[in-house]
Amino acid sequence: MSHLETDLIHQGRAFNDSKAVVTPIYQTSTYYADEDLQQYIVAATETKHPTFYHRHGNPTNSQAAAILASLEKTEDALLLATGMAAISTAILAVVKQGDHVVTQNSLYSGAMLFFKEFLSDYGVTVTHVDQTDNAAFEHAIQQNTKLIYVETPSNPNLDVTDLEYIGQLGKKHGITTMVDNTFASPINQTPSDYGIDIIVHSATKYLGGHSDLTAGAICGSKEFIHKAWRRSLVLGASLSPFDSWLLLRGMKTLSMRVKQINSNALALAKWFEKHPAIKHVAYIGLRSHPQYELVAEQMRGGTGMLCIEILGDDDQAYQHAQQVLNKLQIFANAASLGGVESLVVHPASMWGSHHDKSQKKTSGITPGMLRISVGIEHIDDLIGDFEGALEGIG
Ligand SMILES: *Cc1c(COP(=O)(O)O)cnc(C)c1O
After folding, report:
1. Residue 127 C-alpha to ligand 1 middle, in angstroms?
2. Do residues 306 and 323 share a domain?
3. Which ranges of the sequence are coiled-coil (predicted)?
4. Which of 251, 284, 303 lies at the terminal end of a domain, its last residue?
5. By alpha-carbon position, which residue is closest to atom 5 of ligand 1?
């Protein structure tokens, strides 16, 4: 077994049958059936066969999937067109009408929508619990619970779920466990080390890393990936060969990028802690984070995600947050995260349509909160940008 940094570049070479050092983009929907009939039947039915028809598989996708499986230490992986495609396809490969799911109060907004609106329409019930309270997960388990779905650290308020506890809870009750590992990335966290069954990703974020593609990944056992693949054949959210190629290119530098991002984010978080205009900094790499011990146990780095709370009571804090957004020069106000460039969003205004007031409260979104995705720029420039934008507040 080679190391992760090496796997990122070389894993899955078997799917490149050309002499090109860089995997070609197999920009084709279909493949010649010039082998004997028996082999063609195999191609038509085998899980993720790379050379039958695009919805079934593609050599570029197979190579990227091989890397994902090795990063997450799972038997296999399936790549799809977006993170939400991966999440919805994976969940629909676990639950059916009459089943129950236990999940968290704080989740990525798309996953929240899927649990609240989609699953309930199809007869699957869901209980949301406080992810920082281990016992709450066990209390919520019912006879028909088929899935425990967690996200850690969570989007946007960076609460952490105890992966070892969840992995054991699933095993104890015979319930499938699934983790959205997008924020951590495989560089900072390996859920399968704790017995988690299925790992999902928005590869749009750190894995791709350049804000130039959307993709999603499901990592799990061969048996589960086969099930998820069967679902994906009818749901149809295949990853395009070009986006898959961009993902392969992006992943080569994943380790370097994430390490630089971890270091920048920690330095920025420490600087925020001392700034008078900042009421609160939520960064899992800070000793002040209430779950710092758990983070130190289950993670290798703090990620590039942090949230700050600007000074002021509700309305004033809202205005201050907007003002800071407008003044920032390097941090761009844009959705998404995990790219080489630093981004910032104001969740209270961005997620107005997905969350009502009480949902915002339970998911921890406050008027003066800014969510920051730190990139790989020079740390002095990043600090300087906020220094200018915060001037006159506090
Ligand atoms: C962005 C994101 C998703 C959804 O991914 P898409 O690629 O946008 O579909 C899911 N989970 C988390 C934690 C995310 O940040």
Report:
1. 21
2. yes
3. none
4. 251
5. 83
